[in-house]
Every structure is written in structure tokens, then in C-alpha cells.
């Protein structure tokens, strides 16, 4: 049996992918946390990187971390996958528009490593989640959205749509070999739209104020510029492009970002 292995199923995206693959005998779910995956795969533990018998690897990005940490993790996984004869690697990357984001470099490095490797590959360039936007621009206790989004907008995408697309590609990867898909939402959402949907008032603050809030929230030092940089990229018009491949992969219209944020999506 040709086996699909999915890493990182304890994360938010990974849990949705795991749900989409539930009950399949040809899919194995992996995590560093033993309460989630059927197999332990810890990117920081070389001894756990065993991909014997795996035909397709769905590599969910290692997530937030300093560039050197994320690159080391991804490199170790790809090295081990090639060593063990994995035929195809599907990688959840960052949308093309995200080149301006502080956390883009490890994604682009990983894409370059896949292109130079021995396995077939597919890159899913995921847009920023609608769920992330809801957190970044959550109203305060007085019903004000003060996120420094200016007049900028984000082509936010529902996390569940990205999970469905990943399952579709990973279960039948051959037609997608050598392809890079941009998976962004079909509507761009800004502070004004969020305020209307949530019954709030949009009074954008400054980047400096946002930096202070993020730093005081308990975020790790490396996360502060990541989050402030995200605000800046949205505010200055780099994240509002809605042309992408999500509808084609899903075979239906993507879920609206405001439906996710407003709790209307099923």
C-alpha cells in the first residue's frame, strides 16, 4: 500500500488535515506530541525522522521560529525523506505575496531545497488565515479595532479550505508534481470591513503602539517583528491580491473570510 504521512497534526492546520484523512488506512498522522499522531516525528530529534515505507510526505511547515531553527528543521526532514525513498513531498508554504513578511525566508529556502532534491514536489503557498486576521484585529473591550491596518486589506483564507486542498493534493500528488499553487481568499478584507462585520469601530493605531501591545502580550522576542511586520505588509497594500488557485483545487468557491470571522461558516 502506498502510504501518505502527514507531519505536525497537533497544530491548527494539521488537526483539520487529520480530520479530513480520518479513517483512511493509507494515511499515517505524525506529531512530536504522542497524544496526537500515530507516529512520533519530532523535527528536532533526528532519530525520530523515519519515513520508511512512506510514498508521499505532506510536510506542514514547522511554524514560528527563528529562521535558522525553521530551516534546520525543514532541511532535516527533507534529508531524511530522501534517504528513506519518499517519492513525493507536498509542502505547505507561504503565499507569493508574503515575500514581504518577516517569516518568508524559511519558506522560500524550503521550496528551493525541494527543487534541488531527489523527490517529486508540490508547493502549496498558503495565504494568511482569516482566523489570524480575526486575532490580529480583534476589537478591544470598548468595541474598537485599533490594529494598524491603515486602508490596507488582506486576501484572508479559511484554514479549513487550506486543509481540504492539502488533502486533495496529497492523496493524489502525481498530477500536481512540480506545481506551485497560490492559495489565497477571493475577497480582500480590511479594518473597515471587519468593523462592520463585528459591530465594532475601526480606529487604527500606529505600528509603534502595536509593537508595544505585542511585546506586552508575552510573545517571544522573535515573534514581535513577525507580527508587526504582518500589520505593515497588510497596511501598505502587499497582501490584497485575490488571484489564486484555491477554487480550482477545491472544485468550489472558497469560504468567505468574513463568514469565518463572523462565525457564519459551518
The number of strands is: 11
- N-to-C span: 34 Å
Total count of helical runs of at least 4 residues: 10
Strand content: 15-25%
How would you spell out the order of helices and strands?
EHEEEHEHEHEEHEEHEHHHH
Helix content: 25-40%
Structural class given helices, strands, pairing? alpha/beta
Uncertain residue segments: none
What strand order characterises the main sheet?
3-2-1-4-5-6-9
Kindly report the average pLDDT value: 95
**Global outline:** globular
Work out the radius of gyration. 19 Å
Profile the largest sheet: 7 strands, parallel
Secondary-structure blueprint:
Blueprint lengths: L2 E4 L5 H9 L6 E5 L7 E2 L13 E7 L6 H17 L4 E7 L9 H12 L4 E7 L3 H7 L7 E2 L7 E2 L4 H13 L7 E5 L5 E2 H8 L2 E2 L4 H10 L6 H13 L10 H5 L6 H5 L5
Parallel strand pairs: 1-2, 1-4, 2-3, 4-5, 5-6, 6-9, 7-11
Antiparallel strand pairs: 8-10
Helix pairs in contact: 1-5, 2-3, 7-8
Briefly characterize the structure.
The chain is an alpha/beta fold. It is built from ten helices and eleven strands. The radius of gyration is 19 Å and the shape is globular.
Task: Describe the fold and architecture.
By secondary structure, the protein is of the alpha/beta class. It has helices at residues 12-20, 67-83, 104-115, 130-136, 159-171, 191-198, 207-216, 223-235, 246-250, 257-261, and strands spanning 3-6, 27-31, 39-40, 54-60, 88-94, 120-126, 144-145, 153-154, 179-183, 189-190, 201-202. The chain has a 7-stranded parallel beta sheet with strand order 3-2-1-4-5-6-9, with helices on both faces. Helix 1 links the parallel strand 1 (3-6) and strand 2 (27-31).
Amino acid at each position: 500500500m502506498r502510504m501518505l504521512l502527514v507531519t505536525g497534526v497537533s497544530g491548527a492546520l494539521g488537526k483539520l488535515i487529520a480530520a479530513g484523512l480520518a479513517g483512511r488506512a493509507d494515511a499515517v498522522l505524525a506529531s512530536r506530541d504522542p497524544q496526537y499522531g500515530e507516529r512520533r516525528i519530532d523535527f528536532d530529534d533526528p532519530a525520530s525522522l523515519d519515513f520508511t515505507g512512506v510514498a508521499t510526505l505532506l510536510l506542514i511547515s514547522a511554524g514560528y521560529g527563528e529562521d535558522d531553527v525553521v530551516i534546520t528543521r525543514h532541511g532535516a526532514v527533507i534529508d531524511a525523506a530522501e534517504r528513506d525513498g519518499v517519492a513525493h513531498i507536498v509542502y505547505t508554504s507561504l503565499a507569493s505575496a508574503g515575500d514581504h513578511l518577516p517569516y518568508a525566508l524559511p519558506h522560500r529556502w524550503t521550496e528551493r531545497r525541494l527543487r534541488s532534491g531527489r523527490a517529486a514536489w508540490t508547493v502549496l503557498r498558503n495565504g494568511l488565515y482569516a482566523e489570524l486576521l480575526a486575532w490580529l484585529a480583534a476589537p478591544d473591550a470598548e468595541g474598537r479595532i485599533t490594529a494598524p491596518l491603515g486602508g490596507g486589506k488582506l486576501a484572508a483564507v479559511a484554514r479549513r479550505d487550506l486543509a481540504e486542498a492539502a488533502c486533495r493534493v496529497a492523496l493524489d500528488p502525481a498530477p500536481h508534481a512540480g506545481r506551485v499553487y497560490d492559495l489565497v481568499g477571493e475577497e480582500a478584507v480590511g479594518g473597515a470591513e471587519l468593523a462592520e462585520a463585528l459591530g465594532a469601530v475601526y480606529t487604527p493605531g500606529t505600528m509603534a503602539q502595536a509593537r508595544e501591545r505585542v511585546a506586552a502580550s508575552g510573545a517571544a522576542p522573535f515573534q514581535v517583528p513577525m507580527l508587526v511586520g504582518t500589520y505593515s505588509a497588510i497596511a501598505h497594500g502587499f497582501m490584497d491580491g485575490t488571484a489564486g488557485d484555491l477554487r480550482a483545487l477545491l472544485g468550489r468557491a472558497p469560504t468567505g473570510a468574513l463568514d469565518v470571522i463572523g462565525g457564519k461558516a459551518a
